[in-house]
């Protein structure tokens, strides 16, 4: 029965991540078509803009022109998230953990696609009041996923809820 639950979790992961990643890629396609080489578009003047940017680094512009490192790092993180998803028990109490893993995975894959295909990530959302770096939908997935993951790990789940992640030595 446990194997069927794991397979079902991965089917859920595949469908959710495909939909979320598809939406991210669609928004980036629209950004290229409607923003590249054009003036910024104010959505809320002095607050929120659409602004095209080709980001050759990671968050906040770090690791500029380090494509191989970023591809490897993202791939390693995605493997870790898939491992967690594989091990998560089927209990309803883990639904938040699953959903957050889906968000983080979709964001990672969305930016990984850009990085592999284009050598840069397409960013196009600019929040002016705090001069926040230009970002995209995949960045939102990862940021929101990580913030809520931090919150649920600290305030919702207990240490014993993560026993499923411990390595078990069989016969040693």
TrEMBL record:
GO molecular function, one term: aspartic-type endopeptidase activity
Lineage: superkingdom: Bacteria
Range of residues in the leader sequence: none
Reaction catalyzed: Release of signal peptides from bacterial membrane prolipoproteins. Hydrolyzes -Xaa-Yaa-Zaa-|-(S,diacylglyceryl)Cys-, in which Xaa is hydrophobic (preferably Leu), and Yaa (Ala or Ser) and Zaa (Gly or Ala) have small, neutral side chains
GO cellular component: plasma membrane
Protein's membrane topology: Multi-pass membrane protein
Entry-linked InterPro entries: Peptidase_A8
Top class in the EC scheme: hydrolase
UniProt entry tagged with the keyword Nuclease: no
Subcellular location: Cell membrane
Record: active site: 123, 139
GO process terms (BP): proteolysis
Pathway noted in the entry: Protein modification; lipoprotein biosynthesis (signal peptide cleavage)
Keywords from the UniProt entry: Aspartyl protease, Cell membrane, Hydrolase, Membrane, Protease, Transmembrane, Transmembrane helix
E.C. numbers: 3.4.23.36
Transmembrane domains' residue ranges: 68-86, 95-113, 133-157
PANTHER family for the chain: LIPOPROTEIN SIGNAL PEPTIDASE
Similarity field: Belongs to the peptidase A8 family.
Function: This protein specifically catalyzes the removal of signal peptides from prolipoproteins.
Protein name stated in the entry: Lipoprotein signal peptidase
Source organism (scientific name): Blautia hansenii DSM 20583
